[in-house]
């Protein structure tokens, strides 16, 4: 039986809950409808998150994203709704959703929304490429 769109997001236990690590997903085929004209809107979604206890199951995410295909919704509203729905089921330490909508009427629209778990702070970044390879040689 073929898959059908669904608003049900499923999760699984984070296999490394003691470690902060980033999950990066790109969803290049998001579609919804313009609530004013009914014409299709197309976007590329970029999801970055640091899980806490749960991760999102990919098939359920695909069916969830698909569920917007026939919905009339503004770019800002759908981007915030997707973030809110993912945060509700996963409760991540951090999540950022970037929605890059393709040109409509000569205008590209990008909507970026974030969630940060109360009290969570990221570890400071380590920039290994910033270390000068010749730093231990005197006279340079």
TrEMBL record:
Oxidoreductase listed as a keyword: yes
Annotated residues for binding of substrate: 56-58, 75-76
Enzyme class, spelled out: oxidoreductase
Gene Ontology biological process terms in this record: tRNA queuosine(34) biosynthetic process
Coiled coil residues, start to end: none
Keywords tagged on the record: Cytoplasm, NADP, Oxidoreductase, Queuosine biosynthesis
Lineage: Bacteria, Pseudomonadati, Pseudomonadota, Betaproteobacteria, Nitrosomonadales
Purpose of the protein: Catalyzes the NADPH-dependent reduction of 7-cyano-7-deazaguanine (preQ0) to 7-aminomethyl-7-deazaguanine (preQ1).
Annotated family: Belongs to the GTP cyclohydrolase I family. QueF type 1 subfamily.
Protein's name in the database: NADPH-dependent 7-cyano-7-deazaguanine reductase
EC number(s) stated in the UniProt entry for this protein: 1.7.1.13
Cellular compartment(s): Cytoplasm
